[in-house]
Amino acid sequence: MATADHDPDAAPPADAGLFGLPTTPEEARLVIVPVPWDATTSYRPGTSRGPAAIRTASHQLDLYDADLGEPWRAGIAMLDVPSDVEEWNRAARADAEKIIEVGGRIGDDKALAEALARVNDAGARLNRHVYEQVDRYLRAGKLVGVLGGDHSVPFGAIARMAESHDAFGVLHVDAHSDLREAYEGFEWSHASIMFNVVRKIPQVRKLVQVGIRDFAKTEVDVVAREGGRVVVHHDAMLAERGFAGETWRDICDGIVAELPKLVYVSFDIDGLDPKLCPSTGTPVPGGLSFQQAAYLIKRVVQSGATIIGFDLNEVVPGPDGDEWDANVGARMLYKLCAWTLASRK
Ligand SMILES: [Mn+2]
After folding, report:
1. Residue 294: closest CA among 256, 333, 321, 325
2. Over the stretch 207-250, which tens digit does the pLDDT of each residue have?
3. Alpha carbon of 174 to ligand 1 centroid (Å)
4. For the whole prediction, is pTM greater than 0.70?
5. Got the DSSP string for 270-323?
6. 233 pairs with which residues across the strands?
7. Of 36, 231, 246, 340, which residue is the least packed, with the fewest Cβ within 10 Å?
8. Which is nearest to 185 in space by CA: 107, 300, 68?
9. Which SS3 state, helix, strand or coil, does residue 159 take?
């Protein structure tokens, strides 16, 4: 069945694609690349199961959007969850657990040093995989979003964006700054994604972080060293401005004004209030409401900026088949898809 014949009011079959759509990657305008990866998750693993859980939960969504009408009609499709990546992840995770157990302090233990080297190799391989997937669909003229997996996942996607765009900004919604250098020794740690982006991708002219509420002194030092290239909107400060009477609209427009006209969105679900993502790996109290986050994305597009790509990560399905985390993740994914499509009209 073609996208145009899809009935959004009918219950989709269990084997339907993302959002219950029949759209194939070939006919889609926007392709979602699922990456089942949580090799270096330090606290609670499970985000490797995020893409499959989000696809299942997405069948429950009503697809009419109050702002944008029927964005799905443009064609949105998610690739199959790659089983080879699942296998690399299992192997890397087994090695990583030995290192996490000793808090990354491997000393002169040769076996641990070898395990660490294998984890770092696996991270580099994952980066190549994501790069190649994104490259393939960009070359086919598609828009691309990446669905993690932990927050190490999008590095290859952002690196690929840098080949198409000399200068762009990253809007980073997260509870964490992710500016740690090789956290626990893992060069490609989920907690190091933005450190790696800032260090290795000069085309990222601006990194604007929103919702940050758990960070280390070394990360504050990275922000200072970058001298304005990295802007942090701490969750507490955003809340305080609201308490003082500033509107969320004004706050969002200030955030948007800091970004270049080309924007990549990196969205960690734990940037939201943890009641919206209780199973995520590293939850922190505070955070954005769903509507605050969706409105921020909307203001980016309404400002005239273009969303060149995005990722959504750190969604962990709940225990015993609880769908809440994946339900919220599917809804945020739909918002990201819808506004990305709208910005490219
Ligand atoms: Mn985070």
Report:
1. 333
2. 999 999 999 999 999 999 999 999 999 999 999 999 999 999 99
3. 5
4. yes
5. GGB-GGG-TTSSS--S--B-HHHHHHHHHHHHHTT-EEEEEEEE---PPGGG--
6. 210
7. 246
8. 107
9. helix
Q: How far is the CA of 176 from the centre of ligand 1 (A)?
A: 4
Token pair 């993302």 is found at 18
Name 65's bridge partners: 69
Count of other CB atoms within 10 angstroms of residue 125: 14
H/E run at residue 208: strand 204-212
CA separation for the pair 190, 315 (Å, rounded):
13
168-194 tens-digit pLDDT: 999 999 999 999 999 989 999 999 999
Ligand 1 centroid to Cα of residue 79, in Å, is 25
Quote the ligand 1 centre to 9 CA distance (angstroms). 35
Q: Phi/psi at 90 (nearest 5 deg)?
A: -60, -45
* Ligand 1 center to 100 CA (angstroms): 18
What SS3 state is found at 160?
Answer: helix
pLDDT value at residue 206:
98
Q: Is the dihedral of CA 100, 282, 211, 336 positive or negative?
A: positive
Instruction: Provide the residues around ligand 1 (an ion) whose CB is within 5 A.
Output: 174-176, 268, 270
Domain 3-343 has CATH 3.40.800.10: yes
Q: How many angstroms is it from 124 CA to the middle of ligand 1?
A: 21
SS3 per residue for 108-147: CCHHHHHHHHHHHHHHHHHHHHHHHHHHHHHHCCCEEEEE
pLDDT band at 41 (very low <50, low <70, confident <90, very high): confident
State pLDDT tens for residues 258-305.
999 999 999 999 999 999 999 999 999 999 999 999 999 999 999 999
Q: Is the pLDDT of residue 95 over 90?
A: yes
